[in-house]
Each structure stands twice: as C-alpha cells, then as structure tokens.
Structure prediction request, 282 residues.
Amino acid sequence: MTARLIDGKALAAQVRAEVAARAAVLAAAGRRPALAVIRVGADPASEVYVRNKVAACKAAGIHSIHESYGDSLTEAELLGRIDALNRDDAVHGILVQLPLPAHIDAQRVIEAIAPSKDVDGFHVASAGALLVGRPGFRPCTPLGCMRMLAHIGMAQLRGKHAVVVGRSNIVGKPMALMLLAADATVTIAHSGTPDLAATCRQADVLIAAVGKQRMITGDMIKPGAAIIDVGINRLPDGTLCGDVDFAAASEAAGWITPVPGGVGPMTIAMLLSNTVQACEQA
Ligand code: GUN
Prediction:
C-alpha cells in the first residue's frame, strides 16, 4: 500500500468536538440546539441510521426529538407534523429520514421543511443556493467529503481535475457543485458514461458515489490521486465494502478513504454542524 489513509472516524471526532463547543456556547446563552428526526415505515437500515444520528446529537449536546411512525401515516399527516415543527421556535433542524414509503411523495415532504431548518440541505432552495453560490445548508455527505479534502490540504482545487462518479441529488450533483466552487475542473460520470475507466484515470480527485461494490478498480486510478469512497455496500458475509476496490486502489492512489470509517462518520458530523449552524442563525 502506498496511499495514505484519510481517517474519517478521527476527523469526524474532531468535527464533533468543534460542534459540541459551539453547542455549549449556545447553551450558556440559554439556547439549546435541537434537531427533529422523523422516520416513517419499517426500513431496518433507516432505523440504524436514525439511532446513530440521535446518539450523535446527544454526545454533542444537541437536543433531539425522535418521531417514528408506521407505514399507515398519510402524506397529509406527515406534512402536518412538519408544519408544526416549522412553527416551533425550540426546533432548529428538521430531518425526514429517506427513503419514505411509496405512498408519500418524498420531494413534496422535503419542500415542506422551512429552508432555515433544512439541515439535510435537500430543499430546492438549499440546492439553488449551492448552485448560485449563496449561503444555505449544504448536503451532509458531500460537505463531509469537502472537509476531508481540506484536511489533506486540498481545500483549493484550482488546476485539479475532479471526477464524480454518480449523479444523485443527495451526493453526486451537490458534490460536483462544491468541487466547482473550490475551483476544480469537474466531470460528472454515471452509468451512461462510455469509457468510465479512461474518465476516472484523469481524476486528481475521484469521488465514487454509485452504490456498486468495488466497481472502481485499481487500473482506473491516476497515480497519486485522492480517492473519496462514498459507497457503503454490504457483502454476502455481512461485512461492508465501498465502491472502490480498496486494496488495488491503495497501490496507486496518494490518499484514500476506508469503508467503513471513512465518509460515513463524516456525514453525521456534518449534520450536527448544520444543526448548530441553524441554531446560531435562528
Ligand atoms: N437516507 C440516506 N441518507 C440520508 C440522509 O443523509 N438524510 C436523510 N434524511 N435520509 C437519508
């Protein structure tokens, strides 16, 4: 292995300590940051994610309100809950865990959250603010990736080519915009990209966010590149692996994130950071 590891767990702990210090300043002034987390249905992965988010809030001194509903909750009822939380001055951030059951229009639900409380950064107003370079909440996973790049001295990317593999609203698209804002030359690759390997080989910064285990192979890595692996895929034996073939990529890359212990912990840390920011701005 030649690549240096970007330790997401350690960096996330640092971010969480910074967030806890900001939360303590707010608490001393009588303002307790609070995050409402809503889950609907019985997706087991979501249950784990929400539990982790609630525990992370507690550790950082952020009050969390956890609401869990069964599959029978209607869209109108969910919109009613969001309306009440929007009006509640004691709540600073609102997160509706995705995916939602099929009978609920997720985009309509996201658009119902007040942009000032949209700590996930999924509202169209937040996405628009990112697009035009105005202040607003940034989605937590790409924000965490940018923090990792800053940590290895790559906050500024002028002259660098960044390739984002994946084009989701949650990761790929906002990731590309953040890299562009850092002056990178940005390519977004996806399932319809003709020669993905050749495109990836141009990347000084490669962000893999497709959700396909080990699809980025060693021959797709430019020597010395920084590799950020957003993928979390469960193998048949129960272990987790990323979208990047870690062992092979480590031979060529300059920097690489592990899975687990890479981007995952950063996502939660940035959610806490956005929540404290929402309280600071309230
Ligand atoms: N489901 C998977 N990732 C996320 C996330 O970052 N936010 C929400 N709300 N749901 C998710």
